[in-house]
Amino acid sequence: MVAVLVKIFGPENYSLVEDVVQDALLKGLETWKFNGIPDNPEAWLFRVAKNKAIDIIRKEKHYYNFDFSYTEKLALSTEYTLATTIDQHWQEQHIKDDFLGMMFACCLPEISPESQITFMLKSLCGFSTKEIARAFLTTEDTISKRLYRTKEYFRTNHIKPRIPSPDQLPQQLHAVLNCIYLLFNEGYSATHNNKLVREDIIEQALFLCQQLLDNEYTRQPRTCALMALLCFHTARVAGRLTPDGALIPLAAQDRRLWDQSLIRAGNDWMNKAASGQDVSSFHLEAAIAYQHCIAPDYAATNWKVILSYYDALLSLTHDPVVVLNRSIVLLESAGPQQALQALQTLEGHRQMTRYYLYHAVLGEIYKRLGEKEKAVACFEQARVLTTSTQEQGFLAKKIAEC
């Protein structure tokens, strides 16, 4: 709904867009309270928003500077063609295209990753400012400022929902996929919330990825690979936590709780991702996740194959997080000494020294080497750096085991 209204009113009138959406939702609450929820509430809300948009244009087109083409302005100037002109924007395919266009607009490189995710949750997923603030364990004022800066960028640069041209698609699509993956990771291992797993955010990431897959133009191999990766990770959610919310490491998880239907779905998307010559980081991460999903138990994990995927991923991205994850694989496949040598290449790396998992992995390596004092020091540092109470509890157990 937001994407269509932005397309109609223009980005400089974003506050008007929000007013129309809010009015439609309030009218729905008031009407449904007495008449019950309609069979298709989404269509009902869209119809109310469309009628409100027509009413605003009819009464206030001289007050607002709406962003219409010359032809549309002529059509909107008379009652005979006003409604039919606006109706065109609310056709199903237009709605889907505008939604995709809004996804690309949210992920422009000039917008910070934090603001990209915030604006996506607000404009495309329907999260309130309060819900977003709670998800990221910050204040509503902080979220409001992020939203304001993004809307101002839209307004001053006249950014409208638009699917990129073929020559721009690869780069811009990768930015959108990265944003969806960041959003998913915030749900899968919430870094700003006392609840380690946020199913609502995971669902939104899956929903956004599915929108890209529903469009033939954006259904690229790497889009399929990302969906495969999300399916494999989501399949394991039920086994990651105890009933009271404590973290269960992969080695101790009950694999009977893993969702086999999601693993099969992920495998189907992997097969689709194999078309063409494109091999992205999402392909390789999905392949790694698949190996974990098919291992009958932790001891049977094919670490050799996983290590080969990490080697390929490292040559593709040169990401320090990949080095960190590869060291975990080396720990299991080659032993703690080789894992330590791999991890020492990150010593002094600014990003890693502030990342709790770096210190947690280093602690596990020292623990297996029998250097308990170093292990405790690393686990303590990791516990200081994480804001997750579940992670802190897990690290406290690690310290007690030393």
From TrEMBL:
Report whether Secreted shows up as a keyword of the record: no
User: What is the protein name given in its UniProt record?
Assistant: RNA polymerase sigma factor
Where the record annotates domain RNA polymerase sigma factor 70 region 4 type, the positions are 103-151
> What species does this protein belong to?
Chitinophaga flava
Molecular function GO labels = DNA binding; sigma factor activity
**PANTHER family with a match to the protein in the record:** BLL6612 PROTEIN, BLL6612 PROTEIN-RELATED
Pfam families to which the protein is assigned, alphabetical: DUF6596, Sigma70_r2, Sigma70_r4_2
Family per record: Belongs to the sigma-70 factor family. ECF subfamily.
Domain DUF6596, by residue range, is 173-274
